[in-house]
Structure formats: structure tokens, C-alpha cells
Amino acid sequence: MNRHILGEALSSLTFKELKNLEGRLEKGICRIRSKKEVELQNDNMYLRAKIAENERAQQQSNQLIQAASSYNRNFLPVNLLEPSNNDYSNQDQTPLQLV
Predict the structure, then answer these.
(1) What is the mean pLDDT of residues 60-83?
(2) Which of 8, 13, 32, 69 could make a disulfide contact with 17, Cβ separation 3.0–4.6 Å?
(3) GO: which molecular function terms (predicted)?
């Protein structure tokens, strides 16, 4: 029987047996294709869910970055609050004289 399914040793089969074998093979192929279709649909659903999950994670990451950026704009950097040795900062100072 397995040899017949593989298309081997068909010469001993009658026309009726060949038709019967052909029908069984077509049914088997139909079941295989149906199973493949179900598996492909399951894989597609899984991949779509992963894409949606990644998009949500990316949006959350972008929101956190934007929130951190706007939060940081409310503060002056520490080096702006400290006196520096730059020439332009010394020009604004007027010398004091004791009398």
C-alpha cells in the first residue's frame, strides 16, 4: 500500500483500484492543505500579536523619553549655576573699592 501511495508498483493495479487510490490521495492532500492553512493562520495571528506588542512597547518607550525630556527642561544644568573662569562672566562684575 505505501508503495502505491508513492506511485510505485502501480502496474499490478486495476483501473478501479487506481481510481480508488487516486481518490484517497486527493482526500489526503486536501487534509494536508487544510492542516497547513490552519497552521499558517495560527502563525500569522501569533506574528500579528508580536507586532502589536512591539508597537505598544515602542510607543511606551517613546512616551517615557518624551516625559523625561520635558522633565529635564525644567531644570538648569548645574554648571550654569556655578561661577566659571570665562572672560565674559568677569566683565559683568564691577570692582569694589573700600573707602
Answers:
(1) 73
(2) 13
(3) DNA-binding transcription factor activity
**24 is a domain residue:** yes
Residue 45's pLDDT is 98
Q: Alpha-carbon distance 69 to 82, whole Å?
A: 23
**Widest pairwise Cα distance in the chain:** 131
Rounded to the nearest 5 percent, the helix, strand and coil shares of the chain are: 70, 0, 30
Distances (CA, A) of 3 to 20, 24, 86: 15, 14, 93
Number of domains in the chain: 1
- The length of the chain, given as a count of residues: 99
Mean pLDDT of 45-60: 98
What residues make up the domain containing 25?
2-69
pTM comes to: 0.55
